[in-house]
Prior knowledge:
Blueprint: E1 2-6, E2 12-19, H1 30-38, E3 42-43, E4 48-49, H2 54-60, E5 68-78, E6 84-95, H3 102-109, H4 117-120, H5 125-145, E7 155-161, E8 164-171, H6 175-187
Antiparallel strand pairs: 1-2, 2-5, 3-4, 5-6, 7-8
Amino acid sequence: MTVAEALPGKKVKILVAVADVDALVKKNSAIDEHARQNTTSVYTAGKTFPMLPEKLSTDLTSLNYQEDRPAMVIEMVISDEGEMQSSDIYRALVRNHAKLAYNSVAAWLEGKGPAPEAMAAVPGLAENLRIQDRVAQQLKARRHEHGALDLQTLEARPVFAGDEIQDLRVDERNRAKEIIEDFMIAANG
């Protein structure tokens, strides 16, 4: 979950919230041991194999729409040139005000589709997403000026007919997903 706040001097504060699983899963508990053995959630076309039990992975530790959830927040202040001015990490209780999908947001940002319906329900959300997109583009440009490589990986999505896979289609690069990726790269320095 992300949000942007315009600051004086053309700076922007970016907040990236990630579910704080540690708030509910205590170290060395049975659930922690379960997660340690699974190491990650695995997403396949037919089924998701979650790292945590389903009640935690899809509910209690998920930043679900209109639910207050514990999160780790990465706060970054970015200059108009895409330079990180300051950063901080802290715990917070967050509420997701809009359930958006990457593909529909990307189509809207690129002028290839209408604004998602959920966007209209939150005043200022469209402008906020445009600010996030602009900052992500600035961060990316700055990284490339400093020699970053642009490595693309292809993601294939199976096409089913009933229970049978009929085809594999390549998912195009997604501008909305790239916003999150650019913010996470910036946060990692």
